Amino acid sequence: MTHPYAGLRYAATLAHVGRAIWVEPWDATMLLREAPGGAVDAAGPHPFGALGEAADLCGGLEALRAAGAVSAVLVADPFHGPAPDRLRAAFDIVAPFKTHLTVEPRAGAFAPSAHHRGCIRLAERRCRVRQAALRDHLDEWCRLYGELTRRHGITGTHDYPRASFVALAETEGLHGFLAEGAAGEVIGMHLWIDDGRVAYSHLAATDAAGYRAGAPYALHAAAIAHFAGREAIDLGGGAGLADDAADGLAAFKRGFANASRVAHLCGRVLDGAAYARLSAGREERGYFPAYRAPRLSARPPAPRAGFP
């Protein structure tokens, strides 16, 4: 069965990023994006390019080359797909990208930190969490996510238009959890993608009332309980590209987690001459593709990668 993140239906949620192309040797979708100078490159869907364990990696890269892509980049799913050694044999770059905090039965019973246990108890008294379909609460979700976008100045891939959420509502494996306040008003939602083996925290948004009620604690606890039979529950990583011990989001997730997985960024140059021309005047320093890195005069401090 095709992984939810690999399917064309999920790719429709990223139409603002690029045009979906089915890569048969990978049994997965990639996105063809406009690149500088009228070129095209290929990127895996966010958050993962979910490749099958038996994926013909070189065959997929050749298919993308034939489609005119200058380069290909994706973040490999750390729970499924080819092992890092196989990835290194096919890609030019295979580098640690982000640590995902997880809840995994193999690591022991779910045991949130003492701080989180107290916050969960308090949140469960202040709000009610129930399962809910995104299609039935699209307006509430768009309001919540719009507040999140404005609060954090979100741009690019994560600045989803409403059409993305309409498509997401029809994506296979989507589960929604909704937090309601004392008067029954929606104060938070958490969306997950479940492939039957791993449940992935996909998107979450909470308004000011939800934060006061501690809704994120109650939402996470409810979802972890619901997916307790899975091999792993992926809570995601921190807010930035690089792992940062001071990252508040990562610290929040760490309070629930009992394990972690490292996701690797994989990059391959498909047209060397075009890649060199587009990258002129750029300094890679961990970015791939290099031509998407900020120019030297505008470089932010120590970024890890230029994907997506």
Topology:
Layout: H1 8-11, E1 19-23, E2 28-34, E3 40-43, H2 57-66, E4 69-76, H3 84-90, E5 93-103, H4 114-126, E6 128-131, H5 138-152, H6 162-168, E7 174-180, E8 186-194, E9 198-206, H7 208-213, H8 215-226, E10 232-236, H9 248-254, E11 259-269, H10 272-279
Parallel strand pairs: 3-4, 9-10
Antiparallel strand pairs: 1-2, 2-3, 4-11, 5-10, 5-11, 6-7, 7-8, 8-9
Helix pairs in contact: 4-8
Description:
- With 308 residues, this protein is α+β, with helices and mostly antiparallel strands.
- It folds into 2 domains: 4-99 and 263-298, Aminopeptidase (3-Layer(aba) Sandwich), CATH 3.40.630; 111-227, Aminopeptidase, CATH 3.40.630.
- The chain has 10 helices and 11 strands.
- Strands 1-2-3-4-11-5-10-9-8-7-6 form an 11-stranded mixed sheet, sandwiched between helices.
- Helix 4 packs across helix 8 (215-226).
Which strand order does the major sheet show?
A: 1-2-3-4-11-5-10-9-8-7-6
N-to-C CA distance: 26 Å
Instruction: Give the helix tally.
Output: 10
Mean of residue pLDDT values: 91
Q: In one word, what is the shape?
A: globular
Question: Are there runs of 5+ residues with pLDDT below 50, and where?
Answer: 297-308
Helix content: 25-40%
User: What percent of residues are in strands?
Assistant: 25-35%
β-strand number: 11
CATH T-level fold name of the largest domain? Aminopeptidase
Helix/strand-derived category reads alpha+beta
How many structurally independent domains? 2
Oligomer state equals single chain
Major sheet summary line:
11 strands, mixed
